[in-house]
UniProtKB/TrEMBL annotation:
Signal peptide interval: 1-19
GO molecular function, one term: efflux transmembrane transporter activity
InterPro entries: TolC-like
Organism this protein belongs to: Algibacter lectus
GO cellular component: cell outer membrane; efflux pump complex
Subcellular location field: Cell outer membrane
Keywords for this protein: Cell outer membrane, Membrane, Signal, Transmembrane, Transmembrane beta strand
Keyword Signal: yes
Protein's name according to its UniProt entry: Outer membrane efflux protein
UniProt xrefs under Gene3D superfamilies: Outer membrane efflux proteins (OEP) (1.20.1600.10)
Record's keyword annotation contains Lipid metabolism: no
Length: 209
């Protein structure tokens, strides 16, 4: 009941806001489409479906093969030196020489490919995402049906009101004609004043706001 009230008032606010700007004439189908496009509850239901689809994709993507790549670049402005005996490299005995350790510049690339083989929590999460999407779709369908029902009822009430007003106007016209005729008859002395007064009272009642 609460949801129906929210949908009704959201629809009422949307229609009122539009009617303040301009007056539009709608067929029943056009009125339903307009309500589905502008009703706040229907919009939120559509957003919930989009969010559920995104969550399902994120959960599904977690189980797909993952490729991670990295590049490491190093530029050693001052290299570390190590003093060693020169004879170890064919130099004279008793002398020492300094050797630079490592490379002045280096570039190392790496790539890692991983695949989730089995994870119970992943399966549960994937099933939950699917259920959430189905619930969101069902909620959207239910909301659309309630909006359509509200529009059909409102549209029917408007048609009924218009027809009632038309019947009232026809009755007023017919009654005014009868009053004019019976007034002339009364003026000729062929009708009682009470009949004239009764018609006047009836006509004034119909004309009352």
């Amino acid at each position: 009941m609460k949801n129906k009230l929210i949908i009704f008032f959201s629809l009422l606010v949307s229609i009122t806001a539009i009617s303040q700007e301009e007056t539009n004439s709608f067929s029943l189908d056009a009125a339903i489409n307009f309500a589905l496009e502008n009703n706040r509850t229907a919009k939120n239901a559509s957003r919930d479906i989009d969010a559920a689809k995104e969550q399902k994709w994120e959960t599904t993507a977690a189980g797909l093969p993952q490729l991670n790549a990295a590049v490491d670049y190093q530029n050693s402005i001052k290299q570390q030196l190590q003093v060693v005996e020169a004879s170890a490299f064919g130099g004279p005995e008793g002398e020492y020489t300094a050797l630079a350790l490592g490379l002045e510049q280096s570039l190392i690339g790496s790539a890692t490919l991983s695949q989730l083989l089995f994870d119970g929590s992943y399966i549960v999460g994937l099933q939950s995402a699917k259920v959430y999407l189905e619930i969101s779709k069902n909620a959207k369908t239910k909301t659309d049906l309630e909006v359509k029902k509200a529009v059909v009822n409102a549209y029917g009430n408007v048609l009924l009101t218009e027809e009632s007003v038309a019947i009232l106007e026809r009755n007023k016209t017919a009654l005014q004609k009868n009053l004019d005729e019976i007034t002339k008859i009364y003026e000729n002395g062929l009708e009682e004043e009470e009949s004239v007064e009764q018609l006047k009272i009836t006509l004034s009642t119909l004309k009352a706001p």
